[in-house]
Design goal:
alpha+beta; eight-stranded mixed sheet; five-stranded mixed sheet; 11 helices; about 25% strand; binds adenosine-5'-diphosphate; binds magnesium ion; DNA mismatch repair protein MutL
Length: about 325
């Protein structure tokens, strides 16, 4: 691909974790009930995301790797009405294919033939029939092999693997109905059962000791102060079992996994002096909010959301967590 195209690709795909984010979102959008993610060498050498979603026929998979193609928006009105699926820009697969060797193997649900399509450095290398189960497997090899500047900027493989794990964890917790597995260099890091219970998903990800002591935040039981949020719920760690040396806060806005530093800070602040020095909570926080008051990632790379009334959000989240900790 042309240099300009590779730079544009870098806007979407910054590191292995951002490729994984896009691929897992595609699996979720494809109605998958199982998603298995594995990485080699922090995802730098290889990423594989396998799902049992709706899959694609040959024409669909050819379209999927083209520039700015999406099956998810019919027209501009859909965009204005608020996009419900996670992806909508139609550029992730194309962008990943421009900076790696990308193999998509897929078979539609109920279909009788599978297809394998290989893209290398943005060019379709081959398309042909493949024996495969229903659903889609995307493999990304040699990420950034043709973008030395990006490759140089990557951190140690173990750090990249941690970033990937954080992203996969987010989707595992966002939707405990989906069974999510994460493997790094052939070793399983976690696997959720996909049986719809947040606490058991948290247990799979953070371990039994942390999960079983976590305190429930139930916005329905709380009188939230007036503010932008219609509800706050989730699980936060019990102060006495909190031994983490940094905070882990997975935040979901209307079910969508996002980064929201205001929420994380409000959670940490709510513990006040209940935590030992240099100890930080684990938290899984779901916020219900009028979409009009949230600025969801306008820029593809920015997972951070902005709230129109950030102070109000902090106050309500802080209140909900304080109340939950009082009742623990
Ligand atoms: P977007 O998700 O924004 O539409 P992508 O480049 O991520 O753009 O994907 C392009 C299209 O490829 C999607 O709209 C979808 O139709 C198809 N697709 C991608 N991944 C999958 C998958 N795992 N299962 C089924 N279809 C997929
Ligand atoms: Mg997508």
């Amino acid at each position: 691909p042309k240099t300009v195209e590779r730079i544009a690709a870098g806007e979407v795909v910054e590191r292995p974790a951002s490729a994984v984010k896009e691929l897992v979102e595609n699996s979720v959008d494809a109605d998958a009930s199982r998603v298995a993610v594995s990485v080699e060498n922090g995802g730098i050498d290889g990423i594989r995301v396998r799902d049992d979603g709706v899959g694609m026929d040959e024409a669909a998979v050819r379209r999927a790797v083209e520039e700015h193609t999406t099956s998810k928006i019919a027209d501009v009105e859909d965009l204005e009405a608020g996009v419900r699926t996670l992806g909508f820009r139609g550029e992730a697969l194309h962008a990943i294919g421009a900076v790696s060797r990308l193999t998509v193997t897929t078979k539609p649900r109920g279909g009788d033939r599978g297809t394998e399509l290989v893209v290398e450095g943005g060019e379709v290398e081959s398309v042909g029939p493949a024996g495969c189960p229903e659903g889609t497997t995307v493999e990304v090899e040699e990420l950034f092999y043709n973008v030395p500047a990006r490759r140089k900027y990557l951190k140690r493989p173990s750090t990249e693997a941690d970033h990937v794990q954080r992203v996969v964890t987010g989707y595992a917790l966002a939707d405990p109905d989906v069974a999510v597995t994460f493997e790094a260099d052939g070793r399983e890091r976690f696997s959720t059962a996909g049986r719809g219970d947040l606490r058991s998903a948290v247990m799979a990800v953070y371990g039994r000791e942390v999960a079983s002591a976590m305190v429930e935040v139930d916005g329905a039981d709380l009188d939230l102060p007036d503010g932008p949020l219609d509800g706050v719920s989730g699980l936060v760690s019990h102060p006495e079992t909190t031994r983490a040396s940094r905070s882990y806060c997975s935040t979901f806005v209307n079910g969508r996994y996002v980064a929201a530093s205001a929420v994380r800070e409000a959670v940490v602040d709510a513990y006040g002096t209940q935590l030992a020095p240099d100890r930080y909570p684990f938290a899984v926080v779901f916020l219900d909010v009028d979409p009009a008051t949230v600025d969801v990632n306008v820029h593809p790379r920015k997972q951070e959301v902005r709230f129109v009334d950030e102070e109000g959000v902090r106050e309500q989240v802080g209140h909900a967590v304080e109340r939950a900790l009082l009742d623990k």
